[in-house]
Amino acid sequence: MQVSETLAEGLKRELKVVIPATDLATRLDEYLNDMKSKVNINGFRPGKVPVAHLKRLHGRQAMGELIGNLINETTTKTIEERKEKPALQPEIDLSDDDAEKVLAGEADLAYTISYEVLPKFDIVDFSTIELERPIVEISEDEVDEQVKQIAESNRPFEAREDGAAAEDGDRVTMHYLGKLDGEPFEGGEDENGQLVLGSGQFIPGFEEQVVGMKVGGKKVIDVTFPEEYGAANLAGRAVTFDIDVKGIEAPGDVSIDDEMATKLGLESLEKLKEIVRGQIESQFGAATRQKVKRELLDKLDAEYTFELPEKLLETEFDGVWKQVEADMQQAGKTFEDEKTTEEEAKVEYRKISERRVRLGLVLSEVGEQNKVQVTDEEVQKALFDRVRQFPGQEQQVFEFYKNNEQALASLRAPIYEEKVVDFILELAKVSDKVVSKDELLAQDEDEA
Question: Counting Cβ atoms within 10 Å, is residue 438 exposed (0-12), middle (13-18) or buried (19+)?
């Protein structure tokens, strides 16, 4: 086998590989010798088929299989010997003009390997990175407010007397049917919908028009969906709802005590507060994690400037752009609505793609150098978490991931990233900074 480098420009590499026809012929004979003990051909005893006869019958097909295997084998070996790491799967170019002669054993096998190598860069000293970790101190008032909301959501209700009209605070059970331009719209019907009047759970103007209705009462009400409503086909649209009241219940008293906690399956009010505090800490802890991770990635992004593999970048950008187009189509918006143009948006999202690729390469290199590993148990847990998101389709989703290496890798990747981030944070200088809840939960304007 002869290998010659035909291109070494930046990260791009191109190699020409030539395997002499004599080598192919030797390998073909070995292949057919192995085959003759496995095939049954009329007129010949098992293992006694002449190689020449096999070559006439199966030579072309065998040579095709042999070439495919040989290209994979030699490509991997060639790149390994060069101690290079391709950014993506190398591309193989085998001239169609020579293919017939190669298959017939009349020409050398010559093909080109094209790929981009991963860039080389030095890892910074993470102990020089200084970060502020925003934390919220959870007050008793915060816990008490959450407990109050839990108590309110579990408030008892009792049926109102016959003929009573619904008032603010009452829980109304009703059948409602929403219509747009006189036609029912998806998601606009509930046979036994429950609504606490005055809670603000429904579209503005809906609850006020139910006040005063009685059991058995029917009514058509007019409301308008908010401009920012999630469903594009309903945002800002005027609709009607056919209302049929089935029941009206008056609110009972709420007591925040051990008895209330017992009804929730807990031994005491103190235990309920302990659980609530833990939930708040978990919520704020996740937000703190995201903030400090974002700050770390920003600092790493500022530390590194190196050439990116073009095809890796294009692959990332294509994925990002497809998601942008899908999101805009779902929201029913145009670039004009976002006060930009498609060209300007592409420039911005290309910058985002470059950042993602660069940071991905940095984190990957850090993880590899420091032997960060994702265990099978961690992937299994992520898989089960994913499966639970599809009730009724668990088995199909499980089989999809189990039989799809790329899909399984998509579960492993974020776990690996988080473990590498943890590794860096252990080495960086991280100081805590007390902030308000609003400051912690505020979204960064340029977050992506």
Answer: exposed
Residue among 106, 102, 28, 38 nearest 62 (CA): 28
Helix axes 269-303, 140-153, angle to 10 degrees: 120
Mean pLDDT of 377-387: 93
CATH 3.10.50.40 positions along the chain are 155-253
pLDDT tens digits, 384-424: 999 999 988 999 999 999 889 889 999 999 999 999 999 99
pLDDT tens, 65-82?
888 888 999 999 999 999
Question: Residue 411 in contact with residue 375, Cβ under 8 Å?
Answer: no
CA distance 289 to 440: 10
- pLDDT tens for each residue of 289-316: 999 999 999 999 999 999 999 999 999 9
> Mean pLDDT, the chain, as a whole number?
89
pLDDT for the residue numbered 381: 94
Q: Which CATH superfamily is domain 2-116 in?
A: Trigger factor ribosome-binding domain (3.30.70.1050)
pTM of the shown model: 0.72
Give the torsion sign (CA, 158, 160, 166, 172).
positive
CATH class of 155-253: alpha beta
Which phi-psi region, left, alpha or beta, contains residue 212 (left: φ > 0; alpha: ψ -120 to 50)?
left
What is residue 448's predicted lDDT score, i.e. its pLDDT?
41
In the beta sheet, which residues pair with residue 175? 244
Measured distance CA(431)–CA(389) in Å, rounded: 36
Largest pairwise CA distance in the chain: 100
**Domain at 267-441, CATH from 1.10.630.10, 3.90.1720.10, 1.10.3120.10, 2.40.50.100:** 1.10.3120.10
